Amino acid sequence: MACASEQEQYQHWLAQINQVCGRFNAQPTEGKFYGELETSYARSLKLSTVTAGGVNLFRSRQEIAQSNDAWFYTVFQLEGSAEIEQDDRRALLKTGDITLIDASRPCSINWQEKSRQISLLVPRQIIEQQCRFQEISCATALSRTLPTVQLSHRLLMESMSNADLSDRESEAALEAMICLLRPAFQQREIIQPRKERQFQHVVALIDDHIQSESLRPEWIAAESGMSVRSLYRMFAEKGLVVAQYIKNRRLDLCAQVLRTAGDDEKLAGIGYSWGFTDHSHFSTAFKQRFGVSPGEYRRRYR
Hints:
Elements: H1 4-21, E1 25-28, E2 34-42, E3 45-53, E4 55-59, H2 61-65, E5 71-79, E6 81-86, E7 89-94, E8 98-102, E9 107-111, E10 115-123, H3 124-131, H4 147-161, H5 167-185, H6 194-208, H7 217-224, H8 228-236, H9 242-258, H10 267-273, H11 279-290, H12 294-300
Antiparallel strand pairs: 1-4, 2-3, 3-10, 4-9, 5-8, 5-10, 6-7, 6-9
Helix pairs in contact: 3-5, 4-5, 7-8, 9-11
């Protein structure tokens, strides 16, 4: 770097990135360094506008271990270009393009020349709900020529400029953007291998019997024609635990009910109807997943 002031700017920018976006590391590249970061919170929309040039920002296993990985970054390229790598894929984003990055896996973002992009944080449970654990193509450039990409850009910009959005409306906007982009994220998955089809069958089986008291690993394995050990291994390959997946799925469905539940509906009753027999356990588990208690979650969606 050319001078002390530029070095100070670089260190300040990287510190801002680490504070707002999670743990990253960086190294300068050829050309003059440029770095700015603006943050914005529109209710459920948590996003950062990054303007950068002459720098490579990356996230290794070391940085992942030091920060929250319960997110995906949806990157909207506003100006210039950026090269993004993850899982042996490399995407060159040009103005108007979009891509997805998984915060739980190493990645790299390279800005040769000054460019500008918005990074929208998407909670992992939204991606899980929308995509049902089917493989997502991260670091794949979704072209600005796609109608769904254009609609997502428009929805993001209108949501950012609307100060009157409620929590419910901003979360709906976030889910709508992912719903619009989902086919593009999955468009390269043409034929599912046998193991993936089997996993999707098990996930559908769980959904069909999610309110049943008999929904346990032993029952699921028997209904699916496999051993319990094979069932555990299947979920472990996805980074999941069977019992935890069932609990999170039930919590997600409880959250859907709470969005429209009236004050006369007892929270314990809602939890019980989805398999939580102990209200204290339900309340604790719900807060761990959504960051607020069931009662507070319902109040937000009145």
